[in-house]
Specification:
13 helices; magnesium; Alpha-Beta Plaits; 332 residues; alpha+beta
């Protein structure tokens, strides 16, 4: 690793002073020596500070996450707030930054002739240690030893863990060169491009094969690959959807989504949440009812983001909030 001129004459004491200045523990009464010792202890065995957990995605399927323990999570949140969040990302990235909006991501592709959807395979797992170090903590801004330490604190098995507070923002920084290059290439050809996490969407009137080849080759050069099973080319004569939102003529969720959501809420209100979950063979361990209701609330929130004037689901939201309150009261 070549020495950067800025850090060439810095001593270890300078590095440690720089590290303390990042305020990775926030407001703390710990002395500098204790903070440094704790950071290096965690970074030397960072995998031990994660546990596997599962949440429900919007469509009800499970998402497996690696959740950091409270101390590592606090450090990562401070890395995010003090270091990563202020760094601008590409305008083509429509997730994981202030002002990012899944609805705006879909709206960019409204009423287009063709819609090409491409997916990056094992997105977070493909973002490995050198990518994180180079993109999030470059040597031009960080002493090499500090850059390496920060990278360790944000990785699991030398890759980005899905579930760490820092991972989404780091993924945008890693993808910034890709977004800029592909975005400019598409813009020159009248193609609309957005990327929501690992979901890339292209719309307009274009040669889909040429776009797919261009994207695939550039991704491969960066260490990624396309998930070919998720490639979809949709014409205006079929239902075009982007991040779950139909974009043919106006932004809306599918009839199936709305019908299933109405049915789910109805059964909860008629039979009670616990009875409904038992009928669905849903696990009923501690906290499962709360998690289910929060997931249901998230689905309705999503619908209201797309169609804020939907009075039926606004009323349904009130009912869900009442069920959440009743469930919490029943715990006491």
């Amino acid at each position: 690793m070549p020495d950067m001129p800025l850090w060439k004459y810095c001593t270890t004491a300078h590095y440690l002073e720089f590290l303390i200045s990042l305020q990775l523990f926030g407001d703390t009464d710990w002395c500098a020596e204790k903070q440094i010792s704790c950071l290096y202890t965690i970074s030397n065995d960072v995998n031990a500070h994660y546990q596997r957990t599962t949440i429900l995605k919007r469509d009800g399927t499970p998402r497996h996450l690696l959740a950091p323990d409270p101390l590592l999570k606090k450090i990562q949140k401070n890395i995010l707030r003090n270091i990563l969040a202020p760094v601008p990302v590409s305008p083509y990235a429509t997730a994981y930054h202030k002002g990012a909006d899944v609805v705006a991501n879909a709206a960019a592709h409204l009423g287009q002739k063709l819609l090409l959807k491409l997916d990056i395979e094992d997105f977070f797992g493909s973002i490995i240690f050198p990518m994180v170090r180079r993109s999030a903590f470059p040597d031009i801004y960080f002493p090499p030893a500090v850059s390496t330490l920060l990278t360790h604190l944000c990785c699991y098995n030398d890759a980005l863990p899905q579930g760490a507070p820092t991972s989404p923002t780091i993924s945008n920084l890693v993808m910034k060169p890709f977004d800029s290059h592909i975005g400019e290439w598409c813009s020159a050809r009248g193609i609309i491009y957005t990327r929501y996490c690992d979901d890339m969407t292209f719309s307009g009137d274009f040669d889909a094969k040429a776009v797919k080849n261009k994207v695939g080759h550039f991704l491969q050069a960066l260490g990624f690959s396309l998930n070919k099973e998720k490639t979809k080319l949709l014409t205006r004569h079929t239902r075009q959807s982007v991040t779950g939102i139909v974009v043919n003529q106006k932004l809306q969720l599918s009839r199936d989504y709305r019908r299933q959501l109405r049915q789910e809420i109805y059964f909860c209100q008629k039979f009670g949440v616990v009875s409904h979950l038992k009928r669905m063979n849903y696990p009923l361990e501690s906290g499962d009812v709360e998690r289910y209701l929060q997931a249901l609330q998230g689905k309705v929130n999503f619908l209201l983001q797309v169609n804020p004037g939907d009075d039926v689901f606004r009323q349904a939201m009130s009912g869900i909030k009442q069920m959440i309150k009743a469930n919490r009261n029943s715990q006491y």
